[in-house]
Specification:
By secondary structure, the protein is of the alpha/beta class. It has a single domain, classed as NAD(P)-binding Rossmann-like Domain (Rossmann fold, 3-Layer(aba) Sandwich). The chain is built from 8 helices and 7 strands. The chain has a 7-stranded parallel beta sheet, with helices on both faces. The N and C termini lie far apart (47 Å). 42% of the residues are buried. The structure holds NADPH dihydro-nicotinamide-adenine-dinucleotide phosphate. NADPH dihydro-nicotinamide-adenine-dinucleotide phosphate (NDP) binds next to helix 1, strand 2 and helix 6.
């Protein structure tokens, strides 16, 4: 059997929902997978389930000024960082007029500032090797108007802009930057919004040509591909994984 070269990935929010599916898929592919999250219990559960190749790091990404310390520690403990998946994200359903400055800022801090800060630190370690992949988990909310998710939509549009701008600047240096825009995927995040509102769930499904919601693994398969050398000529894309939601209905 041919020996695979060691690969090290960081997945933020890698212990639940879409992030956990990406972690499982990366580990199954033999990637040393570091998962970052705030919830120690969830991190330990992921570690117990996935074993040796899964490395939990308890950390709150809103602690922006501590991100360089975290990434330096990971680099020292694992020797290299080849892949970053910026998956952690929060949403908050609120009418426009009920959205406070604090609530708006909270979403922007986690969904945008933390993505920028962690990407900059990780890329500083990728640049000397002239190789690396950063994958951002965006949302179709970046492209389409949806009610009651003003801050979330703004944050994901920022991610799309950042993905393209970073790809143009960093691809000549060997760093590929891509994004995935998931449609309606069954996770805790959508359970709150859709399971409590069957009419909305029905509407979401009826607007999806494939005819059902997606599973976290659907996103994970695309994440593995875009993060791998199989996608070495792909950069700056925002790939919809949405059952056709974005092509119309
Ligand atoms: P979940 O709520 O299931 O998971 C979110 C993850 O983010 C959790 O593991 C959480 O970890 C982590 N996280 C949030 N805030 C922080 C923080 N401050 N520091 C560290 N970790 C944090 O969401 P999903 O799996 O549904 O979503 C994953 C990504 O996919 C998000 O970016 C979301 O916007 C995007 N997305 C999801 C869609 C869907 O239909 N589900 C559709 C489109 C996009 P912990 O609990 O440990 O803090």
């Amino acid at each position: 059997m041919q020996m695979q070269t060691k690969r090290v990935a960081i997945i933020t929010g890698g212990a639940s929902g879409i992030g956990m599916a990406i972690t499982e898929r990366f580990v199954a592919d033999g990637i040393h997978t570091i998962i970052v999250g705030r919830d120690a219990e969830k991190l330990n559960q992921a570690k117990n389930k996935l074993g040796n190749l899964c490395y939990p790091y308890e950390f709150d990404l809103n602690q922006l000024s501590d991100i360089p310390v975290l990434i330096k520690k990971i680099k020292e403990e694992h020797g290299q960082i080849d892949i970053l998946v910026n998956n952690a994200g929060i949403n908050m359903k609120r009418d426009f007029m009920e959205t406070s400055d604090e609530a708006f800022q909270q979403i922007i801090t986690t969904n945008v500032n933390a993505v920028f800060a962690i990407s900059r630190e990780v890329i500083s370690y990728m640049l000397p090797n002239k190789k690396g992949s950063v994958l951002n988990i965006s949302s179709m909310a970046a492209q389409y108007g949806m009610p009651r998710v003003i801050a979330y939509s703004a944050s994901k549009s920022a991610i799309d802009g950042m993905t393209r701008a970073m790809a143009v600047e960093l691809s000549p240096m060997g760093i590929r930057i891509n994004a995935i825009a998931p449609g309606f995927i069954e996770t805790a995040m959508t359970a709150v919004a859709l399971n409590s509102d069957p009419e909305r769930k029905h509407k979401a499904i009826s607007r999806t040509p494939i005819g059902h919601m997606g599973q976290p693994l659907d996103v994970a398969e695309a994440a593995l591909f875009l993060s791998s050398d199989a996608a070495k000529f792909i950069t700056g894309v925002i790939l919809p994984v949405d059952g056709g939601n974005s092509i119309g209905f």
